[in-house]
Amino acid sequence: MNYVLRRLGFFVLTLWAALTLNFFIPKFMPGSPINALRDRTRGKVSPAALQQMLTAYGFKPHQNLFVQYLNYLGDMFSGHWGVSIGATLGTPVSTLIGQALPWTLGLVGIATVLAFVLGSLIGIVAAWRRGGKVDSILPSVFVVTSALPYFWVGLLLILMLSVWTNGFLPSDFNYDNTLQPSLSPGFIGSVLKHAILPAGTILITSIGGWILTMRNNMITTLAEDYVRMGRAKGLSNRRIMYGYAARNAMLPNLSGFAMSLGFVISGAILVEYVFNYPGLGYLLYNAVQNTDYPLMQALFMLFTAAVLIAVLLCDFATAWLDPRARAKG
Question: What are the TM regions of this chain, as residue ranges (predicted)?
């Protein structure tokens, strides 16, 4: 119980610090909402009208800073994140995030989980059959691919599987814009087809790290006494590999996996930009380009909370799987 309370206290403290930074950083950034709106309206709106517009959108620059901070914390927790002052002027930020979030979860989330599962399995087999064909080829190949930039791999896949093949796979957007969103097989098939290239990019560039770390953890675990005891008891190789070695070798990877799951919410910004995929990463890029402060603040808050929640759940899972994590010292 003390372990749970300590982790919850650390979570609350870290979340408060992140939200506080998220409030003050835009205050020190160059530019201002008024300048952003003035540039967007090309000077056709008077300063007084711009100020009235910002006040209607919830901006109160002359309000006491401490009161602004308290109102900001209340808005962040209540979901009142204001309205966009970017290209989608006047649209509620929660609406924009709600439209982009499912696409990011579907694309980056599934690709990240697949990379972790496949990478861990390959690492387990490579370590168990150390020096074999799997251990000699796959880790080396995928470690090289994991060092390649996201955007370069994405552009290469577009060139090979879209340009050279006369559009065999679509290279942008999330579905065919001639279709109406529905649960029909045609629309679902279009969504899956459009997700192949961006998901493949994420898989190629991230699986190598999981293979290497799992292989190294597995090799270290195979030298432990309890593995030797399992062999001496005459247990099957399958049970020793998965029940004894892989289960314990997986524990150090949980923290990294939790971090990657947390960053799923932010999306792979470069991947979504290259493929013009309308997820949260692409939304953040547009918010920065258009100096959309409310949208940027809400997205940063969402990304931070997602990472912290994922790490907290990982701590609980680690404590449940490994009693040593609950011990003091």
Answer: 7-25, 103-128, 140-164, 191-212, 254-275, 295-321
Which residues have C-beta within 8 Å of that of residue 242, sequence separation ≥ 6? Answer: 124
Q: List CB contacts of 200: < 8 A, sequence separation 6 or more.
A: 157
Question: Chain centroid to CA 6: how far?
Answer: 26
Contacts of 22 (CB under 8 A, 6+ apart): 297, 300, 301, 304
Tell me, rounded to whole angstroms, the distance of Cα 198 from its chain centroid.
14
d(CA 197, CA 157): 7
Three-state DSSP at 83 gives strand
Each residue's pLDDT tens digit, 295-315: 888 888 888 888 888 888 877
Which residues does the chain have with pLDDT short of 50?
A: 329
Cα-Cα-Cα-Cα torsion 237, 241, 245, 246, nearest 10 degrees, comes to -170
62-81 as b/e, with b when 16 or more CB fall inside 10 Å? eeeeeebeeebeebbeeeeb
User: CA 250, CA 264: separation in Å to the nearest integer?
Assistant: 20
Helical H segments across 91-180, by residue range: 93-104, 110-128, 133-146, 150-158
Neighbours of 191 (CB within 10 A): 17
Domains of the chain: 93-326 (1.10.3720.10)
Neighbours of 257 (CB within 10 A): 21
d(CA 210, CA 255): 12
Predicted TM-score (pTM) of this structure: 0.79
Cβ-proximal residues to 29 (8 Å cutoff; 6+ apart), any chain: none
pLDDT digit string, tens, across residues 263-296: 676 657 888 888 988 888 888 888 888 778 888 8
Token pair belonging to 71: 């109102």
Distance between CA atoms of residues 94 and 101, nearest Å: 10
CB 138 within 8 Å of CB 126:
yes
What does the pLDDT read at residue 158? 92
